[in-house]
């Protein structure tokens, strides 16, 4: 009795407390979140919901950064821009977190402030606050948030704060133990490179292999063996939208931006002429008015349409950086093309027939893979692929990619391996082979024990080197088992690493999110996302993250104003990328040190890059010696470096010749006038800015320096409306819009007298020489300079000649001649 009474009392008191307190607002927050929506990646926005004519995507990257600016933006959002729903959601989540210790609310808040979910502004400070709470409350048991906090400590919240690498490491380790694949990849990368941990190959191998196994098991056997799924890759370096880290001509790393919208091939280019054996008349754009195929006066001729349709379909099939792929649309376009032009195949010129064959090939491939269909249709696929091969068989020596799919159908569907082998061998040595041929051959040889057909190990190695993803894994397994008695732990680790990094859709889907955020103008969020992936060891993400933190200024611009921690973080990523064989990144890291006035550090990076044959680095070394930056001034050494830079890369010819000439004049001038002291004081001004060649190189590039925001505009002319009705074309080419700003070229040029004087002399020399040439030629005099007759070989500027050669012709003779005659010191 007493007991029940007591229980009742307790019950009542519990009920009372419930009644007196409002319920946890988390449930209301949840329904609000459902109405607001987390946000959609602009890349995924359906085409139909876009503006009908042109869809322009641009992204802006502020040059300067200061934590206070971030706070101002944050404040402005909540003061003025936030919608009522957002305000309410924020209030509810905060209340739920603070009053009810609701872990889900804390988690949501942390994610909102990190990734701008529900349109919240980015805030590193608040994200950290709520991550901390969440981790404490969940006793450090959630691998997602542990990984995020690991990134925070290792990078000092991306240069927001000082870094605490040991603490970051602890978080990564715990996250990895709880099964986070991203944390495992971070650790593997750290062990491989000895970052914050002692270098340990075996641990790196263990981790990378474990990841590789996990990835392998995510694919079905059919995907693995027959059709490896296509990935819309966003694994790019952002500066590659602008011709690479060092700009056009000077960057030595291959561009990573391969999925930009297809430019229609330049029909007059030599590539196409070669492709067709050079024996076909080019008749593009010569619209034949009498053509019976003219569908309307505003239409280009039909042959054009085959090419156009193919490229539009190809873009839809592969997807570009600003829009997701659409296989259904691609298929419809291709089918339209086939319906329209199939009857005319044998009247087509070779070029059109070639593109028509590609059309059939892609259509067959789509039916083969079943992309954008409910299921693959092998018989239809085979029919298209065979026709694709047939129609060009007798006209061209081109190896059609269709052979590969045909072989796969023979091998896995008809089980006729000998026929498959025939197809494979036909395209083995052609450009269309991405390594899949060797991969399948190695499999066949192993399975049917046909060693006389080749060595599976070597074939798999070739497949790996050609970049076929499953071959990375298979080859790593082979090397690990010591096939052919060649075992090397480091090599094996690196192959596993490449495989893991190749599996972007599993290991780093954030790359796509990151680019989407950038397109939406959320550069700090994009930076955070790139940083997460950079920590995992992706070289391109390291470049992108570093690029968002610190951009090398163009022309005479002042260096970005950012806290030193952020600069150091950028240097750290550039250096990591440099260690992964991105030579340009080493130069850029050196340039940041240079701009910070840390010449010794800059020098050592330039030296490392010079050892890897970076001509820009060698040139910079010469510059450092010329001005005595971080080293004693030494003109002889400077000249040697300038000459060496020329040896590495002839495209530096003009820059080098001028520098060397300038150097000589300068040495002479110094000796003649004041000696060293005068130059060294005035050289200070130069030190504040960048080496002269970088000026030259960036001279023509745009940037609006007044707003201190770099605009990168990616414009896509949208192919909208009803495709099948409207065949009118359509500019393409994903181009960046440059807004040249001539003013800035002349801004704040700080030369010292030591430079101005030689420059004037050089200019006089040029003018003098050309004047003399013209004069002697006209009068037909036979004048010799340094024993070389100059009137016979006046430089002729031929059109279409490479610019480089042109410059060579102009710059070489005067520099050479006068150099010796007048300034032999
Ligand atoms: C929430 O957690 C704090 C300690 O972090 C504790 O003092 C407080 O009593 C908790 N509140 C509720 C409602 O559980
Ligand atoms: C971490 O916690 C959040 C929120 O409770 C949850 O949605 C997520 O699935 C958790 N992640 C892991 C890996 O447990
Ligand atoms: C910044 O550093 C301070 C002091 O080391 C630390 O208390 C704080 O949590 C750090 N904040 C971030 C966002 O890393
Ligand atoms: C010089 O640099 C350009 C641009 O990066 C490159 O295309 C060319 O191959 C280089 N030449 C040599 C000899 O390395
Ligand atoms: C495989 O294909 C070849 C060549 O087309 C043919 O001669 C052979 O009979 C086929 N074998 C089988 C088992 O179908």
Automatic annotation (TrEMBL):
Residues 794-816 are annotated as: Disordered. GO terms for molecular function: ubiquitin-protein transferase activity. It comes from the Eukaryota. Gene3D superfamilies: Tetratricopeptide repeat domain. It holds the Pfam family Sel1. One of its GO terms (biological process) is retrograde protein transport, ER to cytosol. SUPFAM superfamilies: HCP-like. GO terms for cellular component: Hrd1p ubiquitin ligase ERAD-L complex; Hrd1p ubiquitin ligase ERAD-M complex; luminal surveillance complex. The chain crosses the membrane at residues 756-775. Keywords: Membrane, Signal, Transmembrane, Transmembrane helix. Residues 796-810 have a biased composition (Low complexity). Residues 1-19 form the signal peptide. Belongs to the sel-1 family. PANTHER family: ERAD-ASSOCIATED E3 UBIQUITIN-PROTEIN LIGASE COMPONENT HRD3, SEL-1-LIKE PROTEIN. This is ERAD-associated E3 ubiquitin-protein ligase component HRD3. The gene is KNAG0B02660.
